Amino acid sequence: MIDIKDISGNIRFSTPINEGSKRKFQLMSSDYITLKFSLAEPVYFQLGDYIDDENIGMFELVDLYKPTYNSTSGGYDYELRLDAYYWKWKNKKFFYTPESTGREASWNLTATLDVHLKVFLDNLKSLGYKYREEDFKYEIDTTVENTSKLVSYDSVNLIDALTQMAETWECEWWITDKTIHFGRCEYSSPVDFKAGDLTDTEDVNVSSMQRSDSQTVFATRVYAFGSTRNIPSTYRKNLFF
Protein backbone atom coordinates (compact mmCIF):
# COMPACT_ATOMS: atom_id res chain seq x y z
CA MET A 1 0.00 0.00 0.00
CA ILE A 2 1.09 3.56 -0.74
CA ASP A 3 0.28 6.14 1.94
CA ILE A 4 -0.47 9.66 0.71
CA LYS A 5 0.05 12.11 3.59
CA ASP A 6 -0.85 15.74 4.17
CA ILE A 7 1.72 18.40 5.05
CA SER A 8 1.34 17.54 8.75
CA GLY A 9 2.28 13.91 8.12
CA ASN A 10 -1.22 12.50 8.60
CA ILE A 11 -2.37 9.83 6.17
CA ARG A 12 -4.96 11.32 3.82
CA PHE A 13 -5.43 8.20 1.69
CA SER A 14 -3.84 4.79 1.06
CA THR A 15 -3.96 2.82 -2.16
CA PRO A 16 -2.34 -0.25 -3.64
CA ILE A 17 -0.34 0.12 -6.84
CA ASN A 18 -3.10 -0.64 -9.32
CA GLU A 19 -2.83 -1.54 -12.99
CA GLY A 20 -2.17 1.54 -15.09
CA SER A 21 -0.10 3.31 -12.44
CA LYS A 22 3.29 4.36 -13.74
CA ARG A 23 6.66 5.86 -12.92
CA LYS A 24 8.30 8.25 -15.41
CA PHE A 25 11.71 9.89 -15.41
CA GLN A 26 12.89 11.95 -18.35
CA LEU A 27 16.19 13.74 -17.97
CA MET A 28 15.72 17.48 -17.26
CA SER A 29 12.09 17.20 -18.29
CA SER A 30 9.93 15.22 -15.86
CA ASP A 31 10.10 12.98 -12.82
CA TYR A 32 6.81 11.71 -11.44
CA ILE A 33 4.48 8.85 -10.64
CA THR A 34 0.77 8.49 -11.38
CA LEU A 35 -1.49 6.41 -9.17
CA LYS A 36 -4.72 5.04 -10.67
CA PHE A 37 -7.69 4.18 -8.47
CA SER A 38 -11.46 4.65 -8.30
CA LEU A 39 -13.57 5.75 -5.33
CA ALA A 40 -17.28 5.87 -4.55
CA GLU A 41 -16.79 9.19 -2.74
CA PRO A 42 -14.16 11.76 -3.70
CA VAL A 43 -11.04 12.46 -1.67
CA TYR A 44 -9.83 16.05 -1.98
CA PHE A 45 -6.05 16.13 -2.25
CA GLN A 46 -4.20 19.34 -1.44
CA LEU A 47 -0.98 20.92 -2.68
CA GLY A 48 1.87 19.56 -0.60
CA ASP A 49 0.31 16.12 -0.11
CA TYR A 50 3.12 13.61 -0.52
CA ILE A 51 4.37 10.07 -0.37
CA ASP A 52 7.67 9.05 1.22
CA ASP A 53 8.19 5.40 0.41
CA GLU A 54 11.52 3.59 0.83
CA ASN A 55 11.02 1.68 -2.43
CA ILE A 56 9.52 4.42 -4.61
CA GLY A 57 10.98 7.61 -3.16
CA MET A 58 9.61 11.05 -2.27
CA PHE A 59 6.89 12.57 -4.45
CA GLU A 60 4.60 15.51 -3.90
CA LEU A 61 1.41 17.02 -5.32
CA VAL A 62 2.61 20.25 -6.96
CA ASP A 63 -0.44 20.98 -9.15
CA LEU A 64 -4.09 21.02 -8.14
CA TYR A 65 -5.95 17.87 -9.14
CA LYS A 66 -9.58 16.95 -9.69
CA PRO A 67 -10.82 13.39 -10.34
CA THR A 68 -13.03 12.42 -13.27
CA TYR A 69 -16.64 11.63 -12.51
CA ASN A 70 -17.62 8.18 -13.82
CA SER A 71 -21.26 8.35 -14.96
CA THR A 72 -21.41 4.55 -15.31
CA SER A 73 -20.31 3.68 -11.79
CA GLY A 74 -21.40 6.90 -10.13
CA GLY A 75 -17.96 7.12 -8.58
CA TYR A 76 -14.73 8.99 -9.26
CA ASP A 77 -11.71 7.87 -11.28
CA TYR A 78 -8.27 9.10 -10.29
CA GLU A 79 -4.98 9.25 -12.14
CA LEU A 80 -3.19 11.21 -9.46
CA ARG A 81 0.15 12.67 -10.47
CA LEU A 82 2.79 13.20 -7.80
CA ASP A 83 6.06 14.80 -8.88
CA ALA A 84 9.52 14.24 -7.42
CA TYR A 85 10.08 16.32 -4.29
CA TYR A 86 12.25 18.86 -6.12
CA TRP A 87 9.76 19.48 -8.92
CA LYS A 88 7.83 21.94 -6.76
CA TRP A 89 10.73 24.30 -7.49
CA LYS A 90 9.01 25.01 -10.82
CA ASN A 91 6.52 27.17 -8.88
CA LYS A 92 9.23 29.52 -7.58
CA LYS A 93 11.11 32.30 -9.38
CA PHE A 94 14.90 32.40 -9.59
CA PHE A 95 16.17 35.60 -7.96
CA TYR A 96 19.65 37.11 -7.94
CA THR A 97 19.40 38.15 -4.28
CA PRO A 98 16.59 36.01 -2.86
CA GLU A 99 17.23 37.13 0.72
CA SER A 100 16.65 40.84 -0.01
CA THR A 101 13.38 42.75 -0.33
CA GLY A 102 14.28 44.18 -3.76
CA ARG A 103 14.71 40.84 -5.42
CA GLU A 104 15.61 40.91 -9.11
CA ALA A 105 13.81 38.35 -11.30
CA SER A 106 15.41 39.49 -14.58
CA TRP A 107 19.20 39.63 -14.42
CA ASN A 108 22.44 38.62 -16.12
CA LEU A 109 25.45 36.89 -14.67
CA THR A 110 28.81 36.15 -16.27
CA ALA A 111 30.58 33.61 -14.09
CA THR A 112 31.59 29.97 -13.80
CA LEU A 113 28.88 27.36 -13.26
CA ASP A 114 29.64 26.97 -9.57
CA VAL A 115 28.93 30.68 -8.99
CA HIS A 116 25.55 30.37 -10.73
CA LEU A 117 24.77 27.33 -8.58
CA LYS A 118 25.71 29.14 -5.37
CA VAL A 119 23.04 31.72 -6.22
CA PHE A 120 20.67 28.81 -6.87
CA LEU A 121 21.38 27.30 -3.44
CA ASP A 122 20.75 30.71 -1.87
CA ASN A 123 17.28 30.61 -3.45
CA LEU A 124 16.57 27.17 -2.01
CA LYS A 125 17.78 28.26 1.42
CA SER A 126 15.62 31.40 1.41
CA LEU A 127 12.59 29.23 0.60
CA GLY A 128 13.42 26.78 3.38
CA TYR A 129 13.75 23.85 0.97
CA LYS A 130 15.74 20.93 2.36
CA TYR A 131 16.10 17.21 1.75
CA ARG A 132 15.20 15.33 4.94
CA GLU A 133 16.40 18.30 7.04
CA GLU A 134 19.66 18.54 5.06
CA ASP A 135 20.67 21.48 2.89
CA PHE A 136 20.99 20.86 -0.83
CA LYS A 137 24.41 20.89 -2.45
CA TYR A 138 25.77 20.61 -5.99
CA GLU A 139 28.36 18.50 -7.78
CA ILE A 140 29.89 19.43 -11.13
CA ASP A 141 31.50 16.64 -13.11
CA THR A 142 35.02 17.10 -14.49
CA THR A 143 33.61 16.74 -18.01
CA VAL A 144 31.96 20.18 -17.62
CA GLU A 145 34.19 23.03 -18.78
CA ASN A 146 35.26 25.35 -15.94
CA THR A 147 34.80 28.62 -17.81
CA SER A 148 32.85 31.81 -17.20
CA LYS A 149 29.75 32.21 -19.34
CA LEU A 150 26.90 34.67 -19.60
CA VAL A 151 23.41 33.51 -18.67
CA SER A 152 20.40 35.84 -18.87
CA TYR A 153 17.58 34.91 -16.54
CA ASP A 154 14.26 36.56 -17.36
CA SER A 155 11.70 35.77 -14.65
CA VAL A 156 12.40 32.04 -14.97
CA ASN A 157 11.42 29.43 -12.40
CA LEU A 158 14.04 27.40 -10.55
CA ILE A 159 13.68 24.28 -12.71
CA ASP A 160 14.05 26.26 -15.95
CA ALA A 161 17.06 28.04 -14.46
CA LEU A 162 18.82 24.69 -14.00
CA THR A 163 18.04 23.80 -17.60
CA GLN A 164 19.41 27.15 -18.81
CA MET A 165 22.65 26.47 -16.98
CA ALA A 166 22.91 22.96 -18.41
CA GLU A 167 22.27 24.18 -21.95
CA THR A 168 24.84 26.97 -21.57
CA TRP A 169 27.56 24.57 -20.40
CA GLU A 170 26.37 21.86 -22.83
CA CYS A 171 25.66 19.23 -20.22
CA GLU A 172 22.74 17.81 -18.23
CA TRP A 173 21.41 18.16 -14.71
CA TRP A 174 19.73 15.63 -12.44
CA ILE A 175 19.07 15.31 -8.73
CA THR A 176 19.71 12.48 -6.32
CA ASP A 177 18.66 12.95 -2.71
CA LYS A 178 20.18 16.32 -1.67
CA THR A 179 22.66 16.63 -4.56
CA ILE A 180 22.15 18.61 -7.76
CA HIS A 181 24.39 17.01 -10.39
CA PHE A 182 25.76 18.68 -13.50
CA GLY A 183 27.56 16.53 -16.03
CA ARG A 184 26.98 14.17 -18.89
CA CYS A 185 24.58 11.54 -17.73
CA GLU A 186 26.09 8.49 -19.39
CA TYR A 187 27.64 5.31 -18.06
CA SER A 188 29.26 2.17 -19.37
CA SER A 189 30.68 1.95 -22.91
CA PRO A 190 29.13 2.97 -26.24
CA VAL A 191 27.30 0.23 -28.13
CA ASP A 192 27.40 -0.09 -31.93
CA PHE A 193 24.06 -0.99 -33.53
CA LYS A 194 24.36 -3.11 -36.67
CA ALA A 195 21.34 -4.19 -38.70
CA GLY A 196 21.02 -7.46 -40.57
CA ASP A 197 20.21 -11.12 -40.08
CA LEU A 198 20.55 -11.78 -36.35
CA THR A 199 21.67 -15.37 -37.03
CA ASP A 200 24.28 -14.28 -39.54
CA THR A 201 27.02 -12.90 -37.31
CA GLU A 202 27.64 -11.99 -33.69
CA ASP A 203 28.21 -8.35 -34.70
CA VAL A 204 24.61 -7.93 -35.89
CA ASN A 205 22.32 -6.94 -33.01
CA VAL A 206 19.37 -5.16 -34.71
CA SER A 207 16.91 -6.94 -37.00
CA SER A 208 15.81 -3.75 -38.82
CA MET A 209 16.06 0.04 -38.75
CA GLN A 210 13.94 2.79 -40.23
CA ARG A 211 15.24 6.25 -41.09
CA SER A 212 13.45 9.55 -40.72
CA ASP A 213 12.94 11.72 -43.79
CA SER A 214 14.15 14.72 -41.81
CA GLN A 215 17.45 16.04 -43.09
CA THR A 216 17.80 18.87 -40.60
CA VAL A 217 17.98 17.10 -37.23
CA PHE A 218 20.63 14.49 -36.53
CA ALA A 219 21.13 12.38 -33.41
CA THR A 220 24.53 12.71 -31.79
CA ARG A 221 23.76 10.39 -28.89
CA VAL A 222 21.07 7.74 -28.60
CA TYR A 223 20.10 6.30 -25.21
CA ALA A 224 17.93 3.25 -24.62
CA PHE A 225 15.25 4.43 -22.20
CA GLY A 226 15.68 2.87 -18.78
CA SER A 227 19.20 1.68 -19.49
CA THR A 228 22.19 2.43 -17.28
CA ARG A 229 23.35 5.04 -19.81
CA ASN A 230 20.62 7.56 -19.19
CA ILE A 231 19.84 6.76 -15.55
CA PRO A 232 22.76 7.63 -13.25
CA SER A 233 24.12 4.84 -11.11
CA THR A 234 23.38 6.90 -7.99
CA TYR A 235 19.75 7.41 -8.96
CA ARG A 236 17.14 5.62 -6.86
CA LYS A 237 15.84 2.22 -7.85
CA ASN A 238 13.58 2.12 -10.94
CA LEU A 239 10.08 0.72 -10.52
CA PHE A 240 7.70 -0.39 -13.22
CA PHE A 241 4.02 -0.70 -12.33
What does this entry look like structurally?
This protein has two domains: 2-89; 91-183, Phage tail protein beta-alpha-beta fold (3-Layer(bab) Sandwich), CATH 3.55.50. It is built from two helices and 13 strands, in the order βββββββββαββαββ. It has helices spanning 113-127, 158-168; strands at residues 2-5, 11-15, 22-26, 30-39, 50-53, 57-60, 68-70, 75-84, 106-111, 137-140, 149-154, 172-176, 179-183. A hairpin with a 3-residue loop joins strand 5 and strand 6. Helix 1 packs antiparallel against helix 2 (158-168). The chain is flat and about 60 Å long. The chain starts with a strand and ends in a 58-residue tail after the last strand. The relative contact order is 0.13.
Concise account of the structure shown:
By secondary structure, the chain is mostly beta strands. It is built from two helices and 13 strands; from the N terminus they run E-E-E-E-E-E-E-E-E-H-E-E-H-E-E.
Low-pLDDT segments, ≥5 res: 225-229, 235-241
Average pLDDT, all residues: 86
The chain-level structural class is mainly beta
Q: State the separation between the terminal residues, measured CA to CA.
A: 13 Å
The Cα radius of gyration reads 22 Å
Give the C-level CATH assignment of the largest domain: Alpha Beta
Taken from the alpha-carbon principal axes, the silhouette is flat
- The CATH topology of the largest domain comes to Phage tail protein beta-alpha-beta fold
Counting DSSP E segments of at least 2 residues, the number of strands comes to 13
Number of helices: 2
> What is the succession of H and E elements?
EEEEEEEEEHEEHEE
Q: What is the helix content? A: 10-25%
- Indicate the CATH architecture of the largest domain: 3-Layer(bab) Sandwich
* Fraction of residues in β-strands: 25-35%
Tally of separate domains:
2
